[in-house]
Amino acid sequence: MAEVRHHHIAPITLGYFWNRANQYGAIAAVVTGASLYVAFTTLNLIGNIFIAMFFSAAAAFVIMGVV
């Protein structure tokens, strides 16, 4: 379960270097990443947890950049 938390530190860390990673972008990234990870693993859409983590983190970064 510790793997789930690692990619959620990224929005907070990126906030020091990238303005879009602050406020709404960071919140949207954390919600998106966690939701997609749970969906991928619970619904067995992606069997490998590390690949599920990669795609959920990638989607979180995209959402952070859009918001």
Describe, in plain words, how this protein is organized in 3D.
There is one protein chain. The chain is 70% helix and 0% strand. By secondary structure, the chain is an all-alpha fold. The protein has one domain (2-66). The radius of gyration is 12 Å and the shape is elongated. It starts with a helix and ends with a helix. The chain crosses the membrane at residues 21-40, 46-66. Keywords: Membrane, Transmembrane, Transmembrane helix.
Sequence-ordered SSE layout with sheet pairings:
Elements: H1 2-6, H2 10-14, H3 24-42, H4 49-66
In short:
With 67 residues, this protein is mostly helical. Helices cover 70% and strands 0% of the residues. The protein has helices at 2-6, 10-14, 24-42, 49-66.
Features:
single chain; 67 residues; mainly alpha; 4 helices; 70% helix; 0% strand; disordered N terminus
